[in-house]
């Protein structure tokens, strides 16, 4: 996907007016690439992120330039209160050099173990991969149909990716596991059991402190009894 960008003169707090006009401030940089202050229509930026994801190769054409810059989305800053896009950092890459980045995992399919009452526990939401920029996937699908029984897991070695993509994580790394669903009664019983153990531990520590104190008192008493009487001073 291609994005058209304009050179940005407004910096710092002045970018607020830029956002009100429907543009998002963009910082473009890369290895051996001078930092450029840009602005891109917010609508175009959101469409690119929605359709391509934040790990897919994008192309940026800067005004008055005849070249297309290959970039990856490095960071998106948003207002946590209203979701407003505040700034986007783009990293320019070299098409002939492999890079490492994280891509999202998308769990799909129906697991017989879940149908039997189990719950899927995801060990990871994204995963690091290495590939040429043009070969980077927007996401990796995790098919859970192979999980037949409760307690069974799916591993990195089970993920299906292009031969041009290398997953950095070890093959035996767990991606997700189906476990038994804990009922409210079981959860309450576990909490009560934990509370009981904590109470016993506290009482044991208190009793230990009392015993130590009594031992010290006994030692002092023995010392007094065994001490030789001193002659009274005249």
Automatic annotation (TrEMBL):
Which protein is depicted? Answer: Large ribosomal subunit protein bL25
Organism superkingdom:
Bacteria
Q: List residues of the Large ribosomal subunit protein bL25 L25 domain.
A: 3-90
Which InterPro entries does the record match to this protein?
A: Rbsml_bL25/Gln-tRNA_synth_N, Ribosomal_bL25/Gln-tRNA_synth, Ribosomal_bL25_b-dom, Ribosomal_bL25_C, Ribosomal_bL25_long, Ribosomal_L25_dom, Ribosomal_uL5_bac-type
This molecule's function is given as: This is one of the proteins that binds to the 5S RNA in the ribosome where it forms part of the central protuberance.
- HAMAP family named in the record: Ribosomal_bL25_CTC (MF_01334)
- What keywords tag this UniProt record? Ribonucleoprotein, Ribosomal protein, RNA-binding, rRNA-binding
Quote the PANTHER family the UniProt record gives.
Answer: RIBOSOMAL PROTEIN L25/GLN-TRNA SYNTHETASE, ANTI-CODON-BINDING DOMAIN-CONTAINING PROTEIN, RIBOSOMAL PROTEIN L25_GLN-TRNA SYNTHETASE, ANTI-CODON-BINDING DOMAIN-CONTAINING PROTEIN
| Domain named Large ribosomal subunit protein bL25 beta: residues | 98-180
Task: Determine if Ribonucleoprotein is one of this entry's keywords.
Answer: yes
């Amino acid at each position: 996907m291609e994005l058209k960008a304009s050179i940005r003169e407004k910096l710092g707090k002045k970018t607020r007016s830029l956002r009100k006009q429907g543009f998002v401030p963009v910082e473009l940089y890369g290895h051996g690439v001078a930092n450029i202050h840009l602005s891109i229509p917010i609508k175009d930026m959101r469409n690119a992120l929605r359709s391509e994801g934040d790990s897919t190769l994008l192309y940026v054409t800067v005004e008055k330039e005849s070249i297309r810059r290959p970039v990856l989305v490095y960071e998106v800053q948003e207002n946590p209160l209203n979701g407003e896009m505040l700034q986007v950092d783009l990293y320019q890459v070299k098409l002939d050099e492999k890079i490492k980045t994280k891509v999202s995992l998308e769990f799909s399919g129906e697991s017989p173990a879940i149908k039997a009452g189990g719950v899927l526990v995801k060990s990871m939401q994204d995963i690091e991969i290495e590939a040429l920029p043009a070969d980077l996937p927007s996401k990796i699908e995790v098919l859970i149909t192979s999980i037949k029984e409760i307690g069974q897991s799916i591993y990195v070695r089970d993920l299906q990716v292009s031969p041009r993509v290398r997953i950095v994580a070890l093959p035996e790394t767990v991606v997700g596991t189906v476990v038994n669903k804990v009922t409210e009664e079981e959860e309450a019983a576990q909490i009560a059991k934990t509370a009981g153990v904590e109470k016993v531990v506290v009482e044991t520590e208190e009793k230990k402190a009392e015993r130590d104190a009594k031992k010290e008192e006994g030692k002092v008493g023995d010392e007094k009894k065994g001490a030789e009487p001193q002659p009274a001073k005249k």
